[in-house]
Structure formats: C-alpha cells, structure tokens
Amino acid sequence: MVLKSHTTFLGLLFAAGVFATPALAAAPDGVYARPNGTTAKVWTCGGKLCAKVQDSNFDMFLSGIAPAGEGKWQGDMKHPDMPGFMTFNGTVTTTAKGLKVQGCAVGQTMCDSEQWTKK
Predict the structure, then answer these.
(1) By CB count within 10 A, which of 26, 60, 85, 101 is most buried?
(2) 47: region left, alpha or beta (phi > 0 left; psi from -120 to 50 alpha)
(3) What is the CATH code of the structural domain delimited by 25-118?
(4) What is the pLDDT of residues 17-67, one digit of tens each?
C-alpha cells in the first residue's frame, strides 16, 4: 500500500509541474520604452542579442551579446547617451515588465541600469 501511495504522490507532483523542466524563455524581440522616453528595438541576431535606439543616428549599443543563462545575456555594450568610444560590461535580463539593462565600468564597481517596458 505504501508503494501505491508514493506512486500516486509522485504522479500528482508531475501533473502539478513540480518536476517539469522549465520552458525556454521567449526571445525578448520587440520594441521597448526607455525611462528617458526614447524607444529601443531589440532582436536576436545569430543566437545573440542586438539592440538599437530607434530614431537615432547612434549605432547599435548591443551588437551581439551572448546568452548567459535563462533569460539573461552578457557582453560588451555601448550607452546611447555616452560617447561612442566608451564600452561597458553589459547584462540584459528579462523581467515581468520587460528588460533590465545594466552596464558596468571599471570592472563591476561602477554600474547603472534601466528598466525597459515592452510596448
């Protein structure tokens, strides 16, 4: 009888999704509102993440940062409000509302981030 109750319990756990593998996060492709009112287009490019501020002459500021786990990308990035020669250690993370975009300089000692909301 004990075996049957354990089997039933495990069956219920699988049905509830407790042991189910998580679904892969959807690609964050789309248009996002930045806190300063501009918009950024985000797309996947060769399995990596790219982004550009729309209606701007600024080159892409995310030009192929690599996946770094579920819903996370990391790599060099530029900031559209800073001189183009400056690069930062960038991290993009999916959130419930959109994307958290963070850039760090001087190792990881000086960091700033923005929350982008998907339009």
Answers:
(1) 101
(2) left
(3) 2.40.128.520
(4) 333 333 445 679 999 999 989 899 999 988 889 888 887 766 677 777 899
